[in-house]
Write a structure and sequence with these properties.
Elements: E1 4-7, E2 10-13, E3 18-24, E4 33-39, E5 46-51, E6 59-60, E7 68-73, E8 78-83, E9 92-99, H1 106-113, E10 117-118, E11 122-127
Parallel strand pairs: 2-11
Antiparallel strand pairs: 1-3, 3-8, 4-5, 4-9, 5-6, 7-8, 9-10, 9-11
Length: about 130
């Protein structure tokens, strides 16, 4: 299990941008599949984006495709979520997750949904 700590949330206007960060405690972070999820008030957590250890072919939920970019910096044990053209419906608590299994595409979403390592979340609020 790896300890994860998100940061970078805040209040932004519609159309604005934010970058979230997730720092991991584990030394072999470079071999982990990592991802972002979000939870709207009163709703279940939903998948946002995933990235494998290589960083090749990240996978996105349709609702954020073209607006959000996931990336990782293995030397810093950190992943990022660059969010652009934000909408009020992006308002949620954002969580990062990690898992040791390798994956591709939708398989990453499945694996991360069952991940054992989760951060505590960071609030993103988009005002209209």
């Amino acid at each position: 299990q790896v300890l994860l700590l998100e940061s970078g949330g805040g209040l932004v206007q519609t159309g604005g941008s934010l970058r979230l960060s997730c720092a991991a405690s584990r030394d072999n972070f470079g071999r982990l599949t990592m991802g972002w999820f979000r939870q709207h008030p009163g709703k279940e957590r939903e998948f946002v984006a995933a990235i494998t250890w290589s960083g090749i072919s990240p996978y996105y939920a349709d609702s954020v495709k073209g607006r959000f970019t996931i990336s990782r910096e293995n030397a810093k044990n950190t992943i990022y979520l660059q969010m652009s053209n934000l909408k009020p419906e992006d308002t949620a608590v954002y969580f990062c997750a990690g898992d040791g299994k390798d994956c591709l595409g939708y398989g990453c979403q499945v694996i991360l949904t069952g991940a054992t390592s989760w951060g505590q979340g960071t609030q993103v609020t988009v005002s209209s």
